[in-house]
Amino acid sequence: MIVRQQAPPNFKDYKRYKPYLRQDFHQRCAYCEITEHRWGGAMNFGVDHFRPKSLFRNLICTYSNLYYACNLCNSFKGQTWPSDALKAKGFVFADPCESNVYETHLKEEDDGSLQCLTTCGKYTYEHLDLDRDDLVNWRRERRLARNDLPEVDRMIKEMGDTISKLRGRDKKLLDRRYRVLIRCRARLERDAR
After folding, report:
1. Residue 170 — pLDDT band, cuts 50, 70, 90?
2. How many domains does the chain have?
C-alpha cells in the first residue's frame, strides 16, 4: 500500500506534482508496479488522475487524487471510470493508496502472471492490461532475483571469510572475483525491486 509522505505546496498545474508523486510512489507505477529502472526512466512516467479529470473537475490539482503511473497504464486507464451500476457490483479500480492491491485484489503467480481475487481486481486487471508480456516477464525475473539474493549473500559471506585467511596471489585473484560478485549482487538487488 502506498503511504503518501510528501507535503507539496498547492499548484495550479497538476504536472508540477510529478517530483513529489515520484517520491511517494517510490519511482514505480501505482498500478502495475514496474520501476523506472525497468521502464526506461522518469520520462516514461506521468501524473495520472485516479478519478478522471473529465468527470471530477474539482480534483484536477488535488494531490490525493494524483498517482504516479507508467505511460502504458496511464494510457490504458485514460478517462475510464466505472458507472454506478458497476460500482454497486464491486467493479472499480483498485486503489493502491487504500489497500495492498497485489495481496487483496490480485495474486502474482510463480510464472509472473496474475490471478484476480476480487471483482475490483478483475476490473483493474482488464482495464490496465496487467498481464501484458512485458509485465509478466518482469514479475517473473523479479521473483527469480528475490529468490537468488539469499544464496548470493551466503556466497559473498563465505568468499569474504575465505579471503581473510589467504595471502599473496591467491588472495588478489579471489578478491577480484569477490568484487565482481558484489557488483552482481547490487544488480540483482535492483532487479528484485
Report:
1. confident
2. 2
